[in-house]
Amino acid sequence: MSRRGPIRRAPLNWGPRVTCACNRCQMTVKRGQLYCRDHWFALPAGLRTALQRTHRAGHWASYQDYFRQAQDHLDAGRGQIAGRQGFVVIDEYFDAGRMIGRAI
């Protein structure tokens, strides 16, 4: 405890909203997470492991390479999300009452 009282820390959800790194996804994720659960598990296990290891080790050049591979994998539609026909695409004329899932 400091002389001014207890130290107060900002809550984790303080600040701007953080979204999934997939280009087509606007799902909110916790700070420190790269992708939402669906897109994370749509990546191959080896690529997920490589992303985690290079990030923890601080090998930023390798991490950027793996991140580009992950983005390319998801953009190409190779990472199919279980239980969905394709990614959920939100148009500029999106109606909040309904979401349209379109296969890519």
Give structural notes.
This protein is mainly α and 104 residues long. 34% of the residues lie in helices and 0% in strands. Helix 2 runs antiparallel to helix 3. The relative contact order is 0.14. The C terminus is likely disordered.
Topology:
Layout: H1 37-42, H2 45-57, H3 60-75
Helix pairs in contact: 2-3
Q: What helical percentage do the residues reach?
A: 25-40%
What is the tally of helical segments?
3
- Sheet of most strands: none
Tell me the distance between the termini: 55 Å
Indicate the low-confidence ranges by residue numbers: 83-104
Task: Please count the beta strands (DSSP E, at least 2 residues each).
Answer: 0
Average pLDDT metric: 75
Q: Could you tell me the radius of gyration in angstroms?
A: 18 Å
* Shape label: extended
Spell out the helices and strands N to C. Answer: HHH
Residues in β-strands, percent: under 5%
Given the helix and strand composition, which structural class is it? mainly alpha
Write a concise keyword list for the protein shown above:
104 residues; mainly alpha; 3 helices; extended
Summarize the structure.
The protein has 104 residues and is mainly α. The chain is built from 3 helices and no strands.
